[in-house]
Amino acid sequence: MNLYGYIPESVNEGTGLRAVLFISGCRHACPGCFSPDSWSFRAGEPFTEERQQQILHEVTTHPLLDGVTLCGGDPFFSAAECTSWVQQLRAARPDLTVWAYTGFEYEELITDPARAELARLCDVIIDGRYVEAERDVSLPFRGSRNQRLIDVRATLATRTIVTMQLSMR
Ligand code: SF4
């Protein structure tokens, strides 16, 4: 697995102050994608064990972070590797929330065991491909109207998709 990018502090990919990991690789090929250079699984730097532990240390010792967001690419194409890293994060800092972006729809995502496991570790999943015809720059944390902010805990508890209604950043 490669890491396309890393932002130690951001307020743009979820609520509060978040560290953002951009995981290389995406096969959705959405027309109008904001980051086509991240589609290659070889883009960026190898996410070596050393680099994983370095970022894990940075994140878990940061006193002001509210959480971590996985972006891409699409982290769910590298679900098993991401799961391992997120499990370590969860163990060290259970107070931090985990958000993840994916081009899969949630219902599609959970049919794959490895992707479902990563999904269960998340608090919020922003799902669905980017659809240019549905583009809406006023939406918080997503680019097109078909994408949903899914409250994973509530969705798992009720076995019904529960979305978050955030109207402003
Ligand atoms: S899912 Fe995201 S990264 Fe992948 S092609 Fe679509 S917009 Fe681009």
Short description, anyone?
This protein is α/β, with parallel strands linked by helices. Helices cover 27% and strands 21% of the residues.
Q: Your description of this structure?
A:
Helix 1 packs parallel to helix 2 and helix 2 packs parallel to helix 4. The protein is of the alpha/beta class and 169 residues long. Helices cover 27% and strands 21% of the residues. Iron/sulfur cluster (SF4) binds at residues 26, 28-30, 33, 35, 38, 72-74, 103, 129-130.
Q: How many strand segments?
A: 7
Distance between the termini: 31 Å
Anisotropy-based shape: globular
Structural class: alpha/beta
Heterogens: iron/sulfur cluster
How much of the sequence lies in strands comes to: 15-25%
* Rg estimate, integer Å: 15 Å
On the 0 to 100 scale, the average pLDDT is 96
Strand order of the largest sheet: 3-1-2-4-5-6-7
Which blocks of ≥5 consecutive residues have pLDDT under 50?
none
**Helix-residue proportion:** 25-40%
Succession of helices and strands: EEEHEHEHHEEH
Determine the number of helices (DSSP H or I, runs of at least 4 residues): 5
Largest sheet entry: 7 strands, mixed
Outline the fold blueprint.
Layout: E1 2-10, E2 18-23, E3 45-46, H1 49-60, E4 67-71, H2 79-92, E5 97-101, H3 106-109, H4 113-120, E6 124-127, E7 148-151, H5 152-158
Parallel strand pairs: 2-4, 4-5, 5-6
Antiparallel strand pairs: 1-2, 1-3, 6-7
Helix pairs in contact: 1-2, 2-4
This protein binds iron/sulfur cluster.
What features would you highlight for this structure?
single chain, 5 helices, binds iron/sulfur cluster, globular, 169 residues, 7-stranded mixed sheet, alpha/beta
